[in-house]
Specification:
The protein is α+β, with helices and mostly antiparallel strands. The chain has two domains: 103 residues, no CATH class; 139 residues, Immunoglobulin-like (Sandwich). It contains six helices and twelve strands. The strands form three sheets. Strands 3, 6, 7, 10, 11 and 12 form a six-stranded mixed beta sheet that branches.
Length: 329
């Protein structure tokens, strides 16, 4: 009987404990559910800051004007001319980018000319007749038969619509990407390497190579024989002035490579020998300083520059100056 009572009390205790546990569990679950629902509601009620942005109506990007440099590059130059091994940077004009296309076309000196040498620049604003770029695209036989560009289809040029757009761009001023008509930049003359000639009859014996230089080093001074008639020959180029019309053509000789203030000055003479325009000065080496290194500089002006162009210049390395030097033995 005693054991029965104890068992009854234990059962009652367990029942009460289970009721309490299940009651607590139910309350806990309900609280969690209520918290989740409350949190979700709060999150859904938080405004999205991007919803406040008014994007308006976005228009699609319009294609560039077909008669602009960007339009020409997109539609013609980049897809029909910048082919591998052609105008892809292998040689000029360089049609890889809009910028390289423009800079190697407008007022850019040409490399290949026709037999009559009618052209000077690839593109001249407002002038297709003097723009060799236009000529190469429209003339079947610029130099040779069927050498019209592009060359990937020999003898077959661009469609007329492309030619019309290129023509329109040039005749509208060959404007840059900002829509500005370029101004011609008159470049200073270029002074090329000189020659020394000892044979007055043929002008063919060049005395400037390494075999006639000190220690046979090509940039050392030239060794000239005494009492010998010698011609100093200079080739000068200019982008706008014919070689024969250059205003200043002078040779100066000094014993100091960097000081020509007291140099002896000689004026050269223009000659055209076998279609080679040049400036020449003859002198007997007996009339030049003997046994010391003499440095030369050439001066030229096309009439458009505020100062004469000179070469070599003070800031150039020493080998340039010794290359332009001689010693009379």
């Amino acid at each position: 009987m005693g054991n029965y009572k104890k068992l009854s009390v234990l059962i009652v205790f367990l029942l009460l404990l289970s009721l309490i546990w299940f009651g607590c569990k139910k309350n806990t679950i309900e609280q969690v559910e209520e918290t989740v629902v409350s949190t979700t509601d709060n999150l859904n009620n938080i405004p999205n800051p991007y919803d406040l942005i008014d994007y308006g109506t976005v228009d699609p990007i319009s294609p560039p004007d077909a008669q602009s440099i960007v339009g020409l590059h997109n539609n013609i130059l980049s897809v029909k001319c910048a082919n591998p091994g052609c105008h892809d940077g292998a040689f000029e004009p360089d049609f890889r980018t809009v910028q390289s296309s423009y800079s190697t076309l407008v007022y850019h000196p040409i490399i290949k000319n026709n037999a009559a040498e009618d052209f000077q620049f690839r593109v001249i604003p407002f002038d297709t007749a003097r723009s060799v770029f236009h000529e190469r695209l429209t003339n079947c036989c610029f130099v040779n038969v069927n050498d019209i560009m592009p060359q990937d289809a020999i003898g077959q040029g661009l469609p007329q619509s492309d030619i019309d757009n290129i023509t329109g761009w040039i005749m509208n001023g060959a404007k840059n990407i900002n829509g500005t008509v370029p101004e011609y930049a008159n470049l200073p003359p270029t002074i090329n390497p000189y020659f020394l000639i000892l044979d007055s009859a043929t002008y063919s014996i060049d005395y400037t190579d390494a075999s006639n230089r000190v220690d046979s080093i090509f940039y050392n001074p030239v060794m000239l024989p005494n009492n010998q008639s010698v011609a100093f020959i200079f080739f000068v180029e200019d982008d706008s002035t014919a070689t024969s019309n250059l205003l200043v053509n002078q040779l100066k000789i000094s014993s100091d490579p960097d000081d020509f203030s007291n140099a002896t000055t000689y004026t050269t003479t223009f000659l055209n020998i076998a279609n080679n325009p040049l400036h020449i000065f003859w002198i007997n080496t007996a009339d030049l300083p003997q046994g010391t290194t003499q440095y030369m500089r050439y001066y030229v002006n096309d009439g458009d520059q505020p100062q004469n162009v000179e070469f070599p210049r003070d800031e150039l390395p020493e080998p340039y100056k010794t290359f332009w030097a001689f010693i009379v033995n």
